[in-house]
Amino acid sequence: MRSRMLRTVLLEDDPHARHVLRIALTQATAQPLDLHEAETVAACRALLDAAPCDLLLADLSLPDGSGIEAIRHATTLSPRPTVLVVSSLADEEIVVEAIATGASGYVSKLDPPEEITHAIEIMFAGGSCISPAIAQRLMQLVRRQGNTCTPQPAPHAQLTEAERGVLQLAAQGHTYRRIAQINGIQPSTVYTHVRHIYEKLQVSNLAQALYQARLQHLV
Questions:
Q1: CB of 38 closer than 8 Å to CB of 59
Q2: Where is pLDDT greater, at 192 or 209?
Q3: Domains in the chain and their CATH numbers?
Q4: From residue 203, how far is each of 129, 164, 172 by CA, in Å?
Q5: Does the pLDDT value for residue 210 go beyond 80?
Q6: Do the Cβ atoms of 213 and 201 come closer than 8 Å?
Q7: Which residues lie closer than 8 Å to 23 by C-beta, 6 or more apart?
Q8: Do 56 and 80 meet the contact criterion of CB atoms below 8 Å apart?
Q9: Over the stretch 29-73, which tens digit does the pLDDT of each residue have?
């Protein structure tokens, strides 16, 4: 039986970035892709309205506006597509706005291609993903905010020494590939550690994991 095609909309005006993301998409899933590309917010909205979409990959700096507008439009649709931001913009407030608007993941264009591919895999599986570099910026925002609120930590997590080491390196902004190099292990092993960390901290992405880890004095 033939697999269902995954309808994907790619919002990106840079030809090189589109090429890189096309490759990442084909490597992220074994299912056939129904890929549609847009270079403007207006064109993206039209593609989203044309038929139900599984995944929207969105840049934020477009010729006719912000990708945030496309994300906001995507949240009004039913079924609602999963949204992954792939952007060179890493300002904390912009990241927070994108996630608050409806993005399930946020990665940097400067991340290694394999990490972008892994993020897309997670999106197709219904998860969420924030790259280590972006998560570090969010941690800086949390630290600046100080004690303006009193968040409740998850139950104290019993992380292994290896998991704690991965988390500490991620908090420093290292990519998963770099963490693997530092520890002399395979990137797939790092991904396994990260998955276990998410489960133990009861979170769904790296930003939440680092936030909970800080509350529990793990980093």
A1: no
A2: 192
A3: 6-130 (3.40.50.2300), 137-215 (1.10.10.10)
A4: 11, 15, 19
A5: no
A6: yes
A7: 113
A8: no
A9: 989 999 999 999 999 999 999 999 999 999 999 999 999 999 999
pLDDT in tens, 100-155: 888 988 998 988 888 899 889 888 887 778 877 777 777 666 666 554 544 454 45
CA atoms of 163 and 146, how far apart (whole Å): 26
- Cα separations in angstroms, 159 against 50, 136, 165, 197: 46, 20, 9, 7
**203 touches 134 (CB < 8 A):** no
CA proximity to 12, closest of 46, 82, 52, 63: 63
Cα torsion 114, 120, 124, 130: sign: positive
Distance (Å, whole) CA 10 – CA 67:
11
| Beta strand pairing call for 82-87 and 105-108 | parallel
DSSP state of 40: S
- One-letter identity of residue 72: R
Element containing residue 162 per DSSP (H, E): helix 161-171
